[in-house]
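Q: My labmate handed me this sequence with no annotations at all. I'd like to see what the chain might look like in three dimensions before we decide whether it's worth expressing. Could you predict it?
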Amino acid sequence: MKILWLFAHPDQRSLNAHLRDEGIRELSALGHEYRQSDLYAMEWKAAVDADDFDHDSAEPFRVGSASKRAYMSGKLSDDIRAERDKLRWAETVILQFPLWWYGMPAILKGWFDRVFVRGFAYDVVENGRTLRYGEGGLSGKRAMVVVSAGAREATFAPRGINGEINDLLFPLQHGTLWYTGMDVVPPLLVPAADRFSAEQFEQAAKELRERLRTLPTTTPLPFRRQNSGDYDKDLVLRPEIAPGRTGNGVHRTG
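A: Here is what I predict for the chain of 254 residues:
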């Protein structure tokens, strides 16, 4: 299996970095190929600008259309093309980051803003049909989120004060990864990360190694496909699908 490990933490001495190292050792031991994008170490530029897409600054800068023109004409900036090539190569993407203010670090959000360009990751059209939510430019690939948090695990349960972890990750797992066609396996949450003991680290490393060993066969989250017939022409769930229910959970079949 070919794996891209996308890592977003500023400190190489951190719990996240040590877990990343454990994970990469496990991948090597399992015989998988891997490449890494360590965004802070790369000094990745997070903000989109006209230079990313060789855009004429005298013209209005519409990011979607500018990125598609640059992608189609081979004029994406060098750093974006390098990450795009990693994505093309990878069969699975592991995204590892700390949960900051209920979301990913800005540098990782900026990676998606700049790399998931129109025509490549989204707005892919086939036979007059736009491919998204289970289809699209990155279909056939898998993704797994490894996320650390300072709060205790119980607070991320369905009735916990922080909200259920899959709800917190819904914009990423459903609105970004599944949107572009990637199958998303359940995330690995590393809770209470600011208070880890050596024993807790060993347990977390063990869980990560097990998730990596079973990654090729893990059942993905059962998100509904846009073009499955579950949604009407306005992309709203048909009334007979999950009747009486609302919220993020209705977009999963189980």
